[in-house]
Description:
CATH superfamily of the largest domain: Farnesyl Diphosphate Synthase
Strand content: under 5%
CATH topology of the largest domain: Farnesyl Diphosphate Synthase
Order of helices and strands: HHHHHHHHHHHHHHHH
Number of helices: 16
Oligomer: single chain
CATH class of the largest domain: Mainly Alpha
Amino acid sequence: MEMAQRVELIPSENDNTRMIETASLKEAYDFCLNLAQNHYENFPVASLLVPAKLRPHIAAVYAFARIADDFADEAEYEGLRMARLKDWETQLKNMVLTTPTHPVFIALKNTVEVLQIPLQLFLDLLTAFKMDVVVSRYQSFEQLLNYCRYSANPVGRLVLYIMGYPAPKFLEYSDYICTALQLANFWQDVSIDLEKNRVYLPKEDLLAFHYSEEELFKKTYNDNFKRLILYQVERTQDLFNKGQPLCAEIKGRFGLELKLTWLGGSNILDKIRASSGEVFNHRPKLTKKDFIKFFLKCFQKSFWSANK
């Protein structure tokens, strides 16, 4: 049997994202899995809790999002970001109508067809990446929630489709959790985002708590900032609580994965509270000890049934 040709990138100055050979389906999924396994993300790509037969589908979704995220964020694409993202969107739309040649879209087309995933979820992710290119400030919390609708919520919905739980109530709970996870990451990374000239604390809240953007960039920790960040923590915790019933509804390994994810995000908020909101010099992060506690808590039925 003749071996399939190795997939390589076109060494083009203008477009290094299109493939010179059509990859086989297996090669396409291998490409996505390799990409996933070489990046660290809070995305259940390689998790042992995800059934082996579903990992290629998770990897295909991840690869699509990972490459788009690189276009929006990596230095090498400066000045080319919107063009790359628009091309990626064109390839996504064409995927439905024609036979794709890029391994990501070869794999993704199969995943979308087999699992009947709405294409709009991928378009929503691209909307978020485009927003990342042009938006660095948010006037209101509602505007920030709208960003999360595109950047975070599609990820949870995609995972639910892949895992076989696309029921409307599950999608609604997932939206709460994913938005909360995104917000928790913002409050966790206030200092890191400042280095990228990104501010996710809403302007209206800065004004309400008498804390200026100038103070923020100076990383001034005072009582006003403490009250401001803890206010964000509490409204984020409320979203986690609204989504918690999903963790009780879904059983098995996926249910365990959901519980660990929920506990991890919620615990970041606990750590911000414990530091009285001093996130400039003490970025909250999870430890191995934390995950041991999370694992044990996953089996406390009374905790998960409290908000059901």
